[in-house]
Recover the amino acids of this structure.
């Protein structure tokens, strides 16, 4: 079961998680082909968390129609831990996606955590983004696609409710340090997210039902995920029925 609300903001509800993965893969293929046709490369930023694991595993088997040598994979956010640490997003993405792909290592743009502080890491990642996208002062990168998750508290990337990292202008990358969050984090910010050409949210499970209602129906602007609203791009909220179970009937 699925429903399109409009072409910029698409809310799609699927019976099962694996159907979410199939749809996301179809979109990836279509968006990457368009990007490569126009710019000769495809730039996509990936999130950590548990929800995308099955998606990354399916994607790691995709060959025909996927131009991995022209695909540049970035990270949306990272935990300030070594890259072999079990909470490293890079480690998770490597294990579930990269190890199964033939992608040149120079096309993988991880967030280095070897620096002395998360602030220095975020500064270096911002410099790297500016260099890769050839940005002039004040310019913002336009990722072809950003894959995001949503936490039960409404966070997305590593942007948490009621934190200064939620500013709608300013740096492209920030360091995030919060008592309630175990590791310090490095995250791309709303200006970078909202300049993307396409955003796909992957959301699954009953534990996300309440927050999805607050984001989609109540439009609670205190929640970082509600503030994801690309200036020109499209957003896809891909949910399973469990995550959509508290939405009113106009969605389901
Ligand atoms: C991280 C993520 C984070 C994630 C949400 C949702 O580093 O943990 O990038 O933003 O997307 O916490 O996580 P789940 O998909 O596991 O619920």
């Amino acid at each position: 079961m699925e429903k399109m609300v409009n072409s910029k903001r698409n809310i799609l509800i699927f019976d099962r998680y694996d159907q979410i993965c199939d749809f996301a893969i179809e979109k990836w293929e279509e968006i990457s082909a368009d990007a490569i046709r126009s710019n000769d490369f495809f730039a996509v930023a990936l999130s950590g968390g548990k929800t995308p694991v099955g998606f990354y595993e399916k994607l790691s088997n995709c060959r025909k129609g996927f131009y991995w040598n022209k695909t540049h994979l970035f990270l949306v956010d990272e935990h300030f831990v070594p890259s072999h640490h079990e909470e490293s997003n890079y480690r998770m993405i490597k294990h579930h996606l990269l190890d199964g792909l033939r992608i040149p290592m120079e096309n993988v743009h991880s967030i280095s955590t070897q620096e002395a502080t998360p602030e220095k890491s975020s500064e270096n990642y911002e410099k790297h983004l500016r260099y890769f996208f050839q940005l002039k002062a004040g310019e913002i990168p336009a990722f072809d696609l950003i894959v995001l998750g949503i936490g039960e508290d409404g966070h997305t990337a590593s942007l948490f409710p009621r934190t200064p990292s939620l500013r709608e202008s300013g740096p492209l990358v920030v360091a995030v340090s919060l008592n309630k969050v175990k590791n310090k984090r490095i995250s791309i910010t709303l200006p970078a997210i909202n300049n993307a050409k396409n955003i796909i949210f992957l959301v699954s499970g009953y534990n996300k039902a309440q927050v999805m209602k607050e984001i989609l129906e109540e439009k609670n602007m205190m929640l970082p995920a509600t503030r994801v609203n690309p200036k020109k791009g499209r957003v896809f909220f891909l949910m399973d029925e469990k995550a959509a179970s508290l939405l009113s009937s106009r969605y389901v």
Q: What stands out?
A: The longest helix spans residues 17-39. Residues 47-51, 76-77, 89, 149-151, 155-158 surround 6-phosphogluconic acid (CB under 6 Å).
